[in-house]
Design brief:
four-stranded antiparallel sheet; 3 helices; 186 residues; mainly beta
């Protein structure tokens, strides 16, 4: 099953900082890791969409009975909130996904979140030297997106930064980038 799951998939390029910057930070918290995660599902461009993960039905409201719309904008992922189902211990059995793409074809698969994140490393775009010491201890959000014939898995983590990301805004000392971890088109 894992072989079938990974066949044709495109792992995202890891944007984790390299170990040389971790050594200059003098902290033992690198690489950033997680033992629990939060989870959320988004369905777009489907006739029907249904997802079970961690023995919980993550099917978005009415997505198993009504078509789901197209994404609201080209930068829609930048507007995703933090994942709403909190504190899932790493890692339950694979997510069971069934959906009907816009062409009317029914699909069923399992997405092994544990295999995608087997090293339990947080994905982020902040250089390690820019992360304050002892600032990590959170749970990243893992997002499963079904969009027509493509399933993608993303991670979003709140990463504190030593500097303001918006100059002059004292409340902008963090990043929460949505980073692609895995994708497969059926």
């Amino acid at each position: 099953a894992t072989l079938l799951l990974m066949t044709g998939c495109h792992p995202a390029m890891s944007t984790q900082s390299d170990s040389s910057s971790a050594q200059t930070s003098g902290s033992s918290m690198f690489p950033l890791r997680f033992v629990k995660h939060d989870f959320q599902v988004f369905c777009y461009n489907t006739i029907r969409c249904h997802v079970i993960y961690n023995d919980f039905n993550f099917t978005p409201y009415k997505a198993d009975k009504e078509p789901s719309p197209a994404p609201p904008s080209t930068d829609y992922r930048d507007h995703w909130p933090f994942a709403s189902y909190l504190g899932i211990r790493n890692f339950p059995p694979p997510a069971e996904v069934s959906w009907t793409s816009l062409d009317g074809v029914a699909h069923t698969t399992k997405v092994d979140i544990g295999a995608i994140f087997k090293d339990e490393r947080v994905l982020y775009r902040v250089p390690d030297a820019e992360i304050p010491d002892r600032s990590w201890g959170g749970e990243p959000g893992i997002f499963l997106e079904i969009n027509d014939r493509t399933i993608s898995v993303y991670m979003k983590a709140f990463i504190a930064t030593k500097t303001e990301q918006i100059p002059g805004n004292k409340d902008s000392d963090f990043r929460d980038d949505v980073i692609l971890a895995w994708t497969l088109t059926y």
